[in-house]
Design a protein that fits this description.
Elements lengths: L2 H47 L4 E7 L2 E6 L5 E7 L2 E6 H62 L1
Antiparallel strand pairs: 1-2, 3-4
Helix pairs in contact: 1-2
């Protein structure tokens, strides 16, 4: 394996590493979106179950307030591209559950892609290591041959 091939492999390894970082970031965003949707489903179900319509609303920083939901069966739902529609609580929950299933399927595809990338990265890293070992052995052999000539 020559120096040029080693440099090419190192370049590929670097590119694959960057791609893996991008996919890992996408996976994290998907997981955050899925968790947010799960929390929304739980909140909507809590609103439905509340006898007097009073629920805890988290306002950030660990603070919550008790609020009375005036229209617990009317939910404003962002369906994408900043399009907001009004749905019943039940329909909103079903929509969110479907979205969660879609996100889980997308996450699975990203994980599979990430696994393939990591496998390729490991194979390239092994080839690079073998190339370096061959180079070191060749240098040792050349040094030994020169040492034999000196005697």
């Amino acid at each position: 394996m020559d120096q040029r091939e080693l440099l090419t492999l190192e370049h590929y390894l670097k590119q694959y590493g960057q791609q893996a970082e991008i996919f890992a970031s996408q996976l994290e965003l998907m997981e955050n979106g899925r968790m947010e949707a799960l929390a929304a489903v739980e909140a909507l179900q809590g609103i439905s179950d509340a006898d007097d319509g009073t629920v805890l609303l988290q306002i950030g920083g660990g603070a919550s307030v008790r609020v009375k939901v005036l229209e617990p069966d009317k939910v404003l739902l962002n369906i994408g591209a900043d399009v907001i529609v009004e749905r019943t609580n039940k329909d909103a929950v079903e929509f969110l559950k479907d979205r969660i299933i879609e996100m889980e399927a997308s996450e699975k595809k990203v994980v599979e892609t990430l696994d393939r990338l990591r496998t390729q990265m490991n194979e390239i890293a092994k080839r690079i290591e073998q190339g370096y070992q061959q180079t070191v052995q060749a240098e040792r052999g050349a040094q030994a041959a020169m040492g034999d000539q000196d005697e």
